[in-house]
Each structure stands twice: as C-alpha cells, then as structure tokens.
Design the sequence.
C-alpha cells in the first residue's frame, strides 16, 4: 500500500467519523420525542421523516457512508475502521453545541487521551497486505453467519431490557451491523478496482443492500431507546473491533509485531480509558433530554 493511499484513507476515515457523529446527534435530537412504544416499528419512520433534524441526520449518514467506502477502497480495513473510534469524542463536541451543554475539563482530558491513543495505535499498527476476494466462500458464510447471530442475540436481549441497558445492547448490535457492512464494502471496493462489471457480479455488493439498511434500522432504535452515552460507546467500539477481526483473519492483513506491540497496547489502553471517562460525561448523559 502506498503512503499516499494510506494517508488519504486516514483523512477520509476521520471525515467519515465526523459525519457519523453529526448523524448520531441530529438523529438523537429528532428521536428524543418519539414514543418508546413505537420501537421496532416502521411507524416510527413516518413520524421521523417529517422532522428536519432527522432528515439532516440522514444526509450526514449518506455522506459518511460514501467517505468510508472511498477510504476502504484506497486503504486496508484495519487502517480505516479503528479511526472511526474518533466518532465518540466528536459526538461529545457536537452534542455540546446542539444541546447547549458545557464540556467539563475531565471530558477534554478524555478527548485528548482518545486522540493520542488513536494516533499511537494507528502509527504502531501499520497494517498491510490482505485481499478480501481471495478467501473461500465457506469462510465468508461462517463469518457472516456469526455476525448475524451476534446481532440477533443482542437485539433479543435488548428487547427484554429497559432504559440505558436497552440502548446499550441496541448500540452494540448496530456497531456489529455497521462493522459487517464495512467488511462487505471493502470486498465490493476491491472488486470495483477490477471494473464496474466485476463489482456488479460480486455477491458482497448485494449483501450490502441487506445488512446496511438493517444496521440503519437498528441505529434508529438504539438512539430512540436512550441517551447518547448509553448507545454511542458500544456502537463506536464494536464497529472497528469487528472489522479488524475480519481484516486480520479472513482478509489476511498483517500488523507490525515486535516492539511495536507495546505501542499498540498503550494506544489501545488510552482509547479505552478515554472511552470509560466519556461514558460518565454529563453532556452525553443529558443529550436529548427534553
């Protein structure tokens, strides 16, 4: 992979994370008044579609998806997906503006820790190699079946839960769905490099049409079920984690080893500590409250 392609992938991934953060905040702003009884009902969309904030959020989702797709087309999935963790601190910043909540000094320190952790982790990881379309069909089937099973289990548990736990479980299911979508997009993008005809004859292209909308539907229910702090952390972290598992197993990507592993662990620890701190943020805990 050329350095220029890697850098372009990094920039596009961060831009996609910013659009995803904007989408979450705008859609939460619209979803907060939606009755809980309409959860997992398509009637919810008939009401939301009349709300300007929700439509703006949809626009941000589309732009974010396009940016992420282009990033995956030029860079490895293990380069792009970890950077989507920046969606969480960006959500904090945007929620502060939209819901008029001040950001505490502790939250700024958490944002700084996550930013430093991402920089260290990405620099030390430096994934390379891998080819989505060179893997056997059975491996794809097993992997996708596992992802769908995890999503189903999380949704089933979420429907039995209440409050923040419900939103958290739906958020995790949404992250798994979007991570799976990214895996399929990476495969379709690889096929597109060989021409439009190749992409149209690749089954992963059409699987996106199924998993993508399903993940979006789960997102609406996660945002409607509780505050951003309940749904956003699990959604943000499960997405890149799942995609990296695919990248290093099915796709055959390789990370730097040796002494670089220590840097990777330090970066991951900073990301984790920053996330745990932001989970207690008053901004995200109160975002969307009437």
Sequence:
């Amino acid at each position: 992979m050329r350095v220029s392609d890697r850098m372009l992938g990094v920039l596009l991934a961060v831009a996609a994370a910013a659009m995803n953060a904007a989408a979450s905040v705008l859609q939460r702003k619209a979803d907060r008044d939606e009755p809980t009884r309409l959860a997992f009902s398509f009637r919810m969309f008939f009401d939301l579609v009349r709300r300007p904030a929700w439509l703006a959020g949809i626009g941000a989702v589309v732009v974010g998806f396009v940016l992420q797709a282009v990033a995956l087309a030029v860079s490895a999935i293990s380069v792009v997906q970890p950077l989507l963790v920046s969606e969480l601190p960006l959500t904090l910043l945007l929620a502060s503006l939209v819901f008029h909540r001040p950001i505490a000094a502790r939250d700024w320190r958490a944002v700084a820790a996550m930013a430093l952790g991402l920089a260290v982790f990405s620099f030390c990881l430096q994934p390379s190699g891998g080819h989505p379309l060179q893997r056997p069909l059975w491996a794809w089937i097993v992997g996708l079946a596992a992802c769908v099973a995890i999503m189903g289990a999380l949704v089933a548990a979420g429907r039995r839960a209440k409050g923040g736990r419900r939103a958290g479980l739906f958020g995790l299911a949404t992250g798994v769905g979007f991570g799976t979508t990214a895996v399929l997009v990476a495969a379709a993008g690889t096929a597109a490099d060989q021409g439009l005809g190749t992409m149209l004859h690749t089954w992963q292209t059409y699987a996106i049409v199924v998993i993508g909308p399903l993940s979006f539907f789960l997102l609406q229910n996660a945002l409607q079920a509780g505050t951003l702090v309940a749904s956003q952390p699990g959604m943000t972290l499960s997405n890149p984690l799942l995609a990296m598992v695919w990248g290093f197993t099915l796709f055959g990507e390789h990370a730097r080893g040796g002494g670089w592993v220590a840097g990777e662990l330090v970066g991951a620890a900073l990301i984790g500590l920053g996330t745990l701190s932001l989970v207690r943020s008053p901004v995200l805990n109160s975002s969307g409250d009437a």
About this structure: Residues 163-192 form the longest helix (30 residues). The chain has 13 helices and no strands.
